[in-house]
Amino acid sequence: MDTRVAVISIIVEDDASAVKINEMLSSFSDYVIGRMGVPYKERGVRIICVAVDAPQNEISSLSGKIGKLSGVSVKIAYSAI
Length: 81
Known about the structure:
By secondary structure, the chain is α+β, with helices and mostly antiparallel strands. The chain has helices at 15-27, 56-67, and strands spanning 4-12, 32-40, 45-54, 72-78.
């Protein structure tokens, strides 16, 4: 199956959702190239960027599940490769 290189950008405003996101990303770990998390305490948010190389339907499914969590915003940027 063809894969796509993408970045999943996540902003978390609800701490309870952060735990669920980590669980989801752990189950997706075979596709993860790298990950960066930044707690922005002054604004009460966490910013997570995850670089992946995965089938497009898997990326869309994961981001859809994450986006349904309370206090979470998610966007995907795909590489042209």
